[in-house]
Amino acid sequence: MYSFDYHKPASLSDAAALLGKAEEGKLMAGGQTLIPTLKQRLARPTDLIDLGAIAELKGIKEEGGALVIGAMARHADVAASDVVKRMIPGLADLADNIGDAQVRNRGTIGGSIANSDPAADYPSAIVALNATVHTVKRTIAADAFFTGMFETALEEGEIITAIRFPRAEKAAYAKFRNPASRYAVVGAFVARTGGSVRVAITGAAPSVFRWTEAEAALSANWSAAAIDGLSVKADGLNADIHASADYRANLVKVMTKRAVLAAG
Amino acid sequence: MDIETVGHAGAERFAMGQSVPRTEDPVLLRGEGRYTDDLDLPGAAHAVFVRSRVAHGILRGIDTDAARSMPGVLAVLTAADLAADGVGLLPKTVSLANPDGSPARNPDRAALATGRVRWVGDPVAVVIAGTAAEARDAAEAVTIDVETLPAVVDPEAALAPDAPQLYDAVPGNVVVEYRYGDAAGVEAAFASAHHVTRLRFVNNRVVVAAMEPRAAIASYNADDGRFTLRMGSQGVFGMRNSVAKVMGIPPETLRLLTGNVGGSFGMKSTVYPEYPCLLVAARRLGRPVRWTDERTESFLSDSHGRDAVMTAELALDPEGRFLALRVTGVGNCGAHTAQGVAIPHTSNVVKNTVGVYRTPVMAVHTRVVVTNTVPVGAYRGAGRPEGNYYMERLVQTAAAEMGIDPVALRRLNQVRPEEMPWTAASGQVYDSGDFPAVLSEALERSDWDGFAARKAASAARGLLRGCGLAQYLEATAPPSPEMGGVRFEADGTVTVVTGTLDYGQGHAAAFGQVLSTRLGVPFERIRLVQGDSDRLVVGGGTGGSRSAMASGNAIAEAAAKVIEKGIRIAAFALEAAEVDVEFDRGAFRVAGTDRAIGIMELAGRLRDGLDLPDDLPATLDVDHVFSGAPSTFPNGCHVCEVEVDPDTGAVRVDRYTVVDDFGVLINPMLVEGQAHGGIVQGIGQALMEHTVYDAEGQLLAGSFMDYALPRAADAPSIAFASHPSPARSNPLGVKGCGEAGCSGALPAVMNAVVDALAERGVRHVDMPATPLRIWRTLAGG
After folding, report:
1. What per-residue confidence (pLDDT) applies to B12?
2. Which residues of B touch A244 (CB under 8 A)?
3. Is the pLDDT of residue B4 over 60?
4. Which of B496, B493, B491 is nearest to B510 (CA)?
5. Nearest of B428, B478, B758 to residue B629 by alpha carbon
6. What is the model's pLDDT at position B1?
7. B691 and B714 together in one domain
8. Are A165 and A247 members of one domain?
9. Under 8 Å between Cβ of B304 and B206
10. HEC string of B176-238?
């Protein structure tokens, strides 16, 4: 780790001011990606601005029939939240299976989606549940938020404040874990919201994507069998020492079916 | 160091055969252990090593000027500095000869790279600074000018005529060609055999990943010219001698201290380049110099394990009798032979493949090669698991090919207990063992007969269930001298001094039990000293599953010597003739009388100045050197059941049963723990641990993000049972147990995986059976 100045502002305005002043400032939510990156000397910020003391980023509530999760809600908070379990149990289940207990007690939903790791779990839920990302400046629709590998629609210094999820009729997530890192090799989130079906796949490609053929098939027939006749092309999918592109293509189908079965 | 024992009452609870809890655990679990990095030496400077980022290249230059001017930097050393200070080459470990009688070609290897770099991680320079952060900053400022050469990482590829050559002195990259057995006789047996089963095995390379990274602290006392090196090891005596030789100093001028060690598995047993560098730096700077590996660095700086490609063949007659066995292939020792070793690919293939079976002849022909990879050292079993893996996969495959029940095929060929001692085709003489009974008990305990019903239940859930059987036998380390010291201390404790060293095994309890049983001294008064080279007169160290035989018997013999001395002194104290004094359960007694003195009381009288005649020994203390126990032949039967998910290729170990013959058990709980650890480590190699290099020699599985070690959730509940046939080759009757878990687990797990896939036409799968590999195998790719 290189040396840097550490700040822990108590308000969004203070955070913005600190970021504006810093030569090369870096926002930190739960730090579950950033801190290992710093320790390996792969990043060299001059200032680290810890969002952990900002009360307005915290909290999980029902608001106007939707579920609103503060950006700094930890995975363990989401997993244990009665509101989440009542409104979208599949989302609580996803949170409960991110990483390990240590990661769940530090990592946050806002940090996860701002980082946009291709193997992160949350992006699939954001897209499949057609959530809205609220920032200090605006609201961003799920389909517009994730723009590529480690890339989002967020502008420089734009801080996520909360994520708003419409209540889903059915929602579940199934993933196949990397045997080493336990990240998702492929994760599939299926959701039916207001009669509309969405299937979002994480881990398989550089960024989360919607599997539209599966959405159409499940719209016509909400059952795992509806996926049987579909096939997924390996072109453009990720390949590494754990999973080739064609293996990932297979897992997209298998995990989607398992998510549908889990959603009931 | 001293490992404190915890007081208990009741001598019988601490006798040999009792499951005495590990005495070090209360200390370690409270975080009060003393691992090397825990030690605080005032004024210590910090070292950080600069390592090659390319796998193979000509070292054109090392620019250290910028680093030297960085804040806090005290020194930057390269190979030239070490040579100037009289440091020699690292040890050459391969002592075998080629078939033509010429010696093995161990390349010259200095502690820091000279001339060329040969793997990603090859140490080139060391930076010493006031703090670790300053040293790390400066290490980044060292620039290495390397002209990149093509690299070779795969052992078979290293043999190709056009393969990149690592050393001029190692033509063809071959360190040694190894032959064993009557090749012509074996060939004749194969030529006339009814059936031949042949399998090619990739014995996958593994990263050792001990929980405690390597660490060392060097210091130098200019007043007496002595060095002290504190570090993790597997035995301080041998390590002291080896390090001193590299340093070019007399062994007695180096004190080597080892405290608690958090795992080693063979990896911490060799002289690594860091140690002489730290000693040189400490002498130059006149202050202690410390170094602790970082986890990511450990992947590149610690020896790896396994890595061979072997073809094994079994010849059978029409009834399934084994006629001959042959193993040919190549083993990878990595970039040099200071950490890289040949034993797993040569002599241990011979000793550990033919197993429990009557097989008249065998032949082994292997080559050991250098490649542009991390050196490959001894790793839990060091050839024992591999040999058993080859054999038990052959037996399983032969049974399937010939349509013979795999249990019946094993029974047909097993050596029977009444045939002991049995000289195997390996030349090893088995002293004891009841292989048919061990097999029977394993079948019964594993509910072998219930497998079909469980398979049907798995199938109903869309899963493929397989059952794997493996009956292993391994040869533990050959005899070497070992120290058994017993000292009656002024504070009323009894010190046991051993040259073996605990790095997780639990020696303090086990050795205390041996001494307490033999000498009747209270268990809670016994302290174990093992990690101080100044206290040792000899020491073979821990390795090759030898400690129970070596130190256990050394302590038992030392106890007998204490009793011999004690009888003479007690006779004087009790005013009796020596012939009338008997020793029983901790007391010297005049036969037929009630006159007696306890051994602790006698020691106390000696301390208080008992006025002895000159011809009597002044103390009960003994520095015994045990000449060594022959190799033992631990054996057993593992039964593993797995479930394979054909949609994802994921394998789950569902049931695991093991019945082991470890001879007499000193401490059954410790032994069972060793079996558990070895089995889980075997499951790791079989299913998860995949050390992948790319063609340029970059380690792709270079951190725990990509290198999968088994976690608790990956381990099954293991049903363990002991079926002992006491060893006849050592006084205690013990057999080694530390590595046997791996030896049974590799074949049991892989036989189960192949059995699960057999209904889909699969005959063999290589390790590691990762989800991707299983899925691809089922997809026919």
Report:
1. 85
2. 772, 776
3. no
4. B496
5. B478
6. 35
7. yes
8. yes
9. yes
10. EEEEEECHHHHHHHHHCCCEEEEEEEEECCEECCCCCCCEEEEEEECCCCEEEEEECCCCHHH
**Per the CB < 8 Å rule, is B705 touching A180?**
yes
Predicted pLDDT at B9:
43
pLDDT tens digits for B609-653? 999 999 999 999 999 999 999 999 999 999 999 999 999 999 999
User: Per-residue pLDDT tens for A122-133?
Assistant: 999 999 999 999
The larger pLDDT score, comparing residue B350 to residue B12, is at B350
Does any CB of chain B come closer than 8 Å to the CB of residue A181?
Answer: yes
Whether residue B2 is predicted with pLDDT greater than 50 in this model: the reply is no
In a domain, B206, yes or no: no
- Strands A5-7 and A47-50, bridge-based pairing: parallel
The answer to whether residue B447 is domain-embedded is: yes
Count of residues in chain B: 781
pLDDT band at residue B6 under the 50/70/90 scheme: very low
Closest CA to B689 of B207, B4, B143: B207
Six-digit token string for B467: 């059952």
pLDDT digits (tens, 9 = 90+) for B560-597: 999 999 999 999 999 999 999 999 989 999 999 999 99
> B700 and A241: CB-CB below 8 Å?
yes
Cα–Cα nearest to B500, from B218, B674, B261, B679: B261
CA–CA distance, A32 with A102 (Å, rounded to integer): 9
What angle, rounded to 10 degrees, do the helices at B599-607 and B553-573 form?
70
By residue range, what is the domain housing residue A18? Answer: 5-50
Q: Which residues of B touch A240 (CB under 8 A)?
A: 706
For position B726, what pLDDT does the model report? 98
User: Tokens at residue B440, please?
Assistant: 């029977």
Q: Which residues of chain B make contact with A254, given a CB cutoff of 8 A?
A: 647-648
In a domain, B124, yes or no: no
A residues 118-147 lying closer than 8 A (beta carbon) to B: none
B627 by Cβ neighbours in 10 Å (0-12 / 13-18 / 19+) ranks as exposed
Q: Which of B596, B626, B656 is the last residue of a domain?
A: B626
Does B504 lie in the same domain as B421?
Answer: no
Average of per-residue pLDDT across B665-683: 98
CA distances from B409 to B296, B426, B473 (A): 47, 21, 17
Is B648 within 8 Å of A254 when comparing Cβ atoms? yes
- Distances from the Cα of B636 to the Cα of B301, B469, B663, B741, B748, angstroms: 35, 11, 11, 9, 11
Q: Determine the pLDDT at residue B156.
A: 98
CB atoms within 10 A of CB B492: 12
B688 neighbourhood in chain A, CB within 8 Å:
179-180
Chain B interface includes A250 (CB < 8 A): yes
In 3-state terms chain A splits into helix, strand, coil percentages (rounded to 5) of 35, 25, 35
Which pLDDT band holds residue A232 (cuts at 50, 70, 90)?
A: very high
- Given a contact cutoff of 8 angstroms between Cβ atoms, the answer to whether B776 and B495 are in contact is no
At residue B724, φ and ψ (nearest 5 deg) are -80, 140
Per-residue pLDDT band at B11 (split at 50, 70, 90): low
Specify whether B644 is located in the same domain as B535: no
Give the DSSP H/E element, type plus range, for residue A67: strand A66-70
Helices (H), B628-686: 668-683
CB contact under 8 A, B771 and A176: yes
- Domain span including residue B587: 3-33+478-626
Asked if A251 lies within 8 A of B648 by C-beta distance, the reply is: yes
Do A88 and A104 belong together in one domain? yes
Whole-number average pLDDT of chain B:
96
pTM of the model: 0.96
Same domain, A17 and A67: no
A250 to B700: CB separation less than 8 angstroms, yes or no: no
Do A94 and A28 lie in one domain? The reply is no
List the single residue in A1, A176, A181 with the smallest CB-CB distance to B705: A181
